[in-house]
Amino acid sequence: MFDTLTDRFDGIFGKLRGKGKLSEKDVDEALREIRLALLEADVNFEVVKSLVARIRERAVGDELSKALNPGQQIVKIVLEELTESLGGEAMQITFAAKPPTVVLMAGLQGSGKTTNSAKLANMFKSQGRNVLLVGADLQRPAAVEQLRTLGRQIDVPVFSEASDPVTVARASLEEAKNTGRDVIIVDTAGRLAIDAELMEEVRQISEAVSPKYTFLVVDAMTGQDAVTVAESFHSTLELDGVILTKLDGDARGGAALSVKEVVGRPIAFASTGEKIDEFETFYPDRLASRILGMGDIETLIEKAEAAFEEDEAEEAAQRLMEGTFTLDDFLQQMQQIKKMGPIGNLLGMMPGMPKEVRDVEIEDHHVNRLEAIIRSMTVEERTDPKIIDASRRTRIANGSGMKPQDVSALVTQFTEMKKMMAKLGVTPKAKPKRKGKKNKRKRGGGRTTSKGKQALADPTAVLNEGLDDITDLKLPGLEIEDPRTSGS
Length: 488
Known about the structure:
The chain is 55% helix and 8% strand. By secondary structure, it is α/β, with parallel strands linked by helices. It has 3 domains: 3-86, Four Helix Bundle (Hemerythrin (Met), subunit A) (Up-down Bundle); 101-294, 3-Layer(aba) Sandwich (Rossmann fold); 300-434 and 447-485, 434 Repressor (Amino-terminal Domain) (Orthogonal Bundle), CATH 1.10.260.30.
């Protein structure tokens, strides 16, 4: 969603970093470009005005003059003020001392209330909560049935009855007590536009259940209209937070940057995809970091921890370093990576990733081609790809729907990758012995080669060598252009 804005900030900061000293004129020129970039991203005008004013106040004061590197200090100031505009810190959810904790979901029709009610239920369930979904949207045909279908997917019960929305909501409190449910999520009806009937119905439901949290579900693709909708609902319901959907879309992202300052309520959660588990707590600092092209290593680590089994990952890494990594291991790792979400999104979370690499479009079907080739091999071929001759290549290609040269490319690059990782890793003789949890890594120690030298002594040399290895990859559908020779 923020790719265009990120590219604009990359250009602005690139000019600043090249200067040893910044004058007030340099700062003003950078701020003009920042203002224009934010307005083009559909950020609310008042928000842009306030944000730029805060940045300028800090940038032309003592804070900047005392900095060793003014260009980097400007980046730091913009990051901190952008984080503040997005809400400052993540919203902390607490639960009622006397269950159930009631959560009311509101929003316009088509914003994703029903789907995100199920996503929120799934998140609470993963935290050990017993959730009850309530179908109070009796306006839209099949809305309750949609909620029941989603509830079955995550094994969460759904309560509803053929009466009226207020009665259903009130009856859900008794249902939760009788069935031992400590969290209730009420899915309400929406309209195509705000009207008096919609607001009155939601207000009555709110009075009936006295929710601890009232969340407005907002479609990030609607731009400035999302902020207007949030203001209208807040005046009626006293919102606690906003759930932003379709954050993985290609809209300009102005709603995300505007809603906190305009409405005065934080973005609590963000829906980052269509799958039921593509839903996460909204961290303003992490999003600000990604917008400025600085990556999001914390979210990347959390996704990896959720997708990978620690023991299996350590074993695979050890086999890779020792040169015993097989195509079966490679296949397993690709499947784990796919669980973390779209590969393009993962690249965007990596700090320092060049724009040309971030912009490479790697879809799931590209990875599926590699999986198809590997799955068409026998167990012996996956263990020892060297035995794959011309006839075997033809058989594998026919079985996977690929060409024989694609099979050859995969085998060749897999072999080269093993050699490269063996060079960077620990030799079998030098690898540390694990004795329970007592064997901790010493401070200041890095991975060492068999000769005892630090493997990462020269970061620039390692980065260039890594780019050489990455851009040499020509696996089927995964060709990457070298960012150092692409004209940027």
